[in-house]
Each structure stands twice: as structure tokens, then as C-alpha cells.
Amino acid sequence: MPGRLEPESVPRRDFLGLAGLWSAGLAILGSIAGMARLPKPRVLPETSSQFRIGRATDFAPGTVRVIGEQNVRVIGTNEGVAAMSLVCTHLGCIVSEEGGGFGCPCHGSKFDVAGNVVGGPAPAPLKWLDVSASADGSLVVDKGRSVAPGTYFKLA
Amino acid sequence: MASGLETFIANVKALPRTFRESAVRHGAPTSDRTRSQAVFGNLFLHIHATRTHPHSLKLTSTWALGVSLVSQYAILLATGVLLMVYYKPSIETAYDSIKDLHYVVPTGRYIRNIHRWAAHMMVATCILHMARVFYTASYKPPREFNWVMGMFLFVMTLLFSFTGYLLPWDQLAYWAITIGANIAASPNELAEALGLPKAFYLGDLIKEVLLGGSTVGQEALIRFYVLHIAVLPLVFTAGLGVHMWRIRKDGGIARPDGNPTAASKGVGSMAPQKATTSSELTKTYGLMAVVPDKSAHTGQHTDETVPTWPYLFRAELLVFMVTLVICVMLGLLFDAPLTELANPNVPENPAKAPWYFLGLQELVSYSAFVGGVVIPTIVILGLALIPYLDREPDPPGKWFGWAHEKYVGRASLVYGAVAAILSVAIPVRFGWLRNWFPEIPQIAIILINPGSLLTIAYALWSLFILKRTGSTRLGAVALFTCFLVGFVILTYVGTYLRGPNWDFYWSRSQWPTH
Hints:
The structure holds two protein chains of two kinds.
Chain A: H1 12-37, E1 50-55, E2 64-67, E3 72-77, E4 80-85, E5 96-98, E6 101-103, E7 110-111, E8 117-119, E9 128-133, E10 138-147
Antiparallel strand pairs in A: 1-10, 2-3, 3-4, 4-9, 5-6, 6-7, 7-8, 9-10
Chain B: H1 4-24, H2 32-41, E1 51-52, H3 54-57, H4 59-62, H5 65-86, H6 94-103, H7 108-135, H8 144-166, H9 171-184, H10 187-194, H11 202-211, H12 218-249, E2 306-307, H13 308-333, H14 358-364, H15 368-389, H16 405-430, H17 433-436, H18 442-447, H19 450-469, H20 472-497
Antiparallel strand pairs in B: 1-2
């Protein structure tokens, strides 16, 4: 008698039909998943995030240099050298100096000279970037690595 | 018995006739009956019913907005294909190819202008079309789903505009898309404010898939190009087909007392709902309907409809011609803008999106995530669900047909305008949370801003009207009117009252000069 322990057998025809239907469904789902993988790049087609800014001696205390093509501002102080990104943390416009700090032209975010938010919609301070010395003694800024605000690269 | 040669010559002589007969499947469209057959049997015409109700033909029923939209879409397809002949989707050549189109290519300048004007008109007409359908209560059953399809097509229209915007690769394009892509990535803002680990930074994934990189570059240009010329046209055309198909299947353009009867629902009958006495008169006619011809004898029953050919076709042709004339005139008179070549180091100041996104930009200037993602999603979902939340038997197809609708509409207009103006004026005059409490946590800045408060104010007003009047239709009228007036006011502020650094200026002449 059919029951929980001995369920009614599925006719072979139904079984084969259902198996065919499910395998077709799975194959289509698998293909879609495979296709969806394509648009997410494995390697970002970009130039290196690291770039040289010159020798340590170029950044005596009091030096301020804006590296326009990288959207980075480098300062030299008694504590060392620091680099700050000029890309607004709101929606990616480039901030410019205004009134002793920075202002964003797109949606009016305001930052102080250290990059802290003082007004507008920006959700985070401007990024401070990693500064290091390469083997030949020139300084390298890495836009891909941000550091805590107030981090200076000590000159030897 | 004719020889083989004679038969052959006779066949050659008959060729024009036999070929025509094989192609069109029906006789010459000389009578109502053959014209109906033509509408019924032709792939391109059969999206129409064979008969049309005079109410659908009246200008004031629809203001011809739907047919205008189809006309604009057709113009955009034709001009778009022509632009593709010269446009090169590469960051080295895109800008130059647009310059070539403007200065060198024969008629290229006008084709591009017309493409741009038709695109702007399409966004505006979409909103007007939506307002027409709403205020005539034409989303009522059985047309709920077609309202949702309309919302889908509206979103697709905005995506068309957004993707097309990048293609000239000028300053405006570059910065508008940088902002847009960062809005798409703004769920990061919430993850950051909540201190979630990197795995929750959904925005990075969205941005990588959208741009193919972390900044707008060659990969982004080709992706937007593919979306603009292949993906969106396919999706939109299919959606448009469904939208028009459902007009037919839901019984044509909504009209008072014109809902399909139970018997005819689903076959596109145009038969009016009328009190009838005999069973013979309740007979409804699907598909071919009744035509005044010798063959179809229907006794005393008079159908109120008129033949689609010529009445509807004539109206459609007129609307298409008017749309075309407007596009061509605008294209001849006003050039589509092209700013300097894209420069990733110096943004435009102010960097403004096209007008229909400036209301959004106004919201984004408070918070990227709430203004750019949360509020638009709520608005689109809220509008799309209206037909399911308001199911009162409002007579469809009649302007302001529900009791007190005009009064509630006017009150909502005033309320919506005042709330929108306050949402701009208070931050401009008194500043906002960060000015008052400099140490306030970021999550509060993100969630409590003039845009989110405005949205809540509109929702509360709609609920208030709903409670006060006990009518879901009036609640929907309050909500929709607030949305419309809020959209118009924020768009106006973004367009005319915002200057450099998104600061407030009463007029452009007050902008600081450099």
C-alpha cells in the first residue's frame, strides 16, 4: 500500500519529463549566472595608484603643492610630509581652496584645511593618502591607500 | 487549352496584382469592412482595435500625450541610428566625432539637435502623460498593471537620458556621470556611517559593474554606449509593446461607463456598458466588432464606435506630424550644448545635470544616499502602487471625476508648494544640523535632512486627507499632487536659483565672477 514509508511510485514518463524540465531550468539559470559574471571586471583598467612627487628636499616645512593631474595636495611641515586627496567624499567632484579650507563646486560641501567636514552633505573627511619613500629616495604617494588624518611621513 | 507560354505571359501581366494580394491578405481598403480587415490582419496595424470609441478621439480625453510619446520615441530611434553612423565611442574620439557631427556632417547638427530635443520632450511628456492618466483616474481596474508598465517606461526613459548624457564626453557629461555613478555607489555612505565591515560596501560593486572601473573612463563610456544603443532600446521597445497591448486588452482608452463587461473582458471589446432588456442586445462583439456593411446584419443594435481606419489613424498621423514639426523647429532654432572636452581634474562650477535631474540634485545636495537612492525609490514605488492601494470605483476617463477631487487637489497644491519652498528656504536662511550641532553623528545628517522631511511631510498629508475624507482616491490625489508640485519647485530651484558651489542666488547676475 502507498504511504509515507512506501510512497506511490512516480510513473517513469512523469519522472523523465520532470527531470528534463528541471535540468533545462537549472541550465538556463546557470547560464544567466555565468553571463552576469562578465560585466564585473577582474582587473580594473587603470593607471597605477602610486606616483612619485619628487625628492624629500622639495618639501621643506611650509611647502604646499597641488598635483593637479592626480587631484592630490601635498604639504610639507615640521612633522613631515602629508598628502590629501582633493576628491570630494560626497559625489566625487574635485574640491578647490576657498576661505582657508576647501569647497566643492557640485553640492557645496565645505572642508577645513585638514579636510574635516564643516558644512554640506559630505559624509566623511577628505582622504589623507599614504606617503612613502622609494628605493631611490623620491617620495611616493599611493592614492589607493588612505591613512588616518594627521599622519605625516617623517623625513630622515 | 492555353500553351505554357501564354500562361506564363498572363502570370507576368498579373504579377502586380497577385503580388499585392499575397502581401496584404485582404482586398483594397475601400469599405469599412475591408478597412477593418486591414487593421485586424496587418502586423503593424493590429495593435489597434478595429473600432474606436469617439471618447478616445476627443483631444481633451488624453491630450494626445501617449501618441506624442510614441512619435518622440520613433523620432529618437531614427535620429539615433543616424548619429551612430558617425559617433565613435572612445574617449579619444567621442568628443571630436560630436564636433564633426555639428560642423562637418551634412545635416548632422540638426539631427543631433532634434535627437536632443525629442529626448527632453519625451521626459516632459512622460510626466504630463502620467498626470493625465492619474487625474482622469484611468489607472482603476482593470488598468492597474498598465500604470505599473507606464512607471517602468518612465524609469527607462530617465535611464535613456542618463546614459545618452555621457556620450559627447564633454565637461558636462563627465561630471554629471561621475556624480550619477557615485549616487549609485552611495549605499557605501550608510555602511560607513554604521561602521560596517568592507564586505557590506555594496556601492563599490555597483560602481564597478556600472563603470567598469573606479572612475569614469573608457570602460564607462563603452558600457553607457551599449546600454544606450542596444540594451535600453530592446527593453523599452518590448515594454512599449506590452503597454500598448494592455491598452487594447484592458478595453481601450479609459472612458466613463466604458469598462469592458465580464463577457468581453480580455478580448478588447469596445462595446459600451448599457442597460439592455433582451438577451440579444447584451451580445458583445470582440475583435472584428460590427461594421455597417451588407454582410454583418445585427438588427437594432447600434454600436457607438467609429472605424479605426480612418478616424484614429488620421488623428495619430496629425499628432505625429505636430510632434515632428515641434522637434524640427526646436532643432533648427536651438543647438544642443557641447561644453569643453572632459577634464577629470577640474569640475564645472556649478556642475548641473539636465533639468529633469535637478530636483534630484537638490535632494542629493543634502545626502547622497537618502536623496539619491532612498527617496527616489520610495517615490517610484509609491507612485507605482497607487492603483493597488486605491481601488475605489472612481469613474475612469473623466477629469477630476471623484467628489471633492478638485478641492483636495488645490489644497494639496498649496500645501505641497509651501512645504517644498520651506524645505529649500530654511536651510538657505538658517543652515542645517551640521551648522547647529557641529559634533552631530553622520547617521543623523544622512537620515534627517530637508529632503527626507519633505517626503515625510507629503506622506503625512496624504494620510491626513485619507483619514479626514475616508477616501483612498482623495489620499492618492493628495500624494500625487504633492509629488508633482514638489518636483516642479525643486527642479526650478535647481535650475535657476543654484549657482557656484550649489549656493543660493536669486539670479544668475549675482553669481561671483572669477
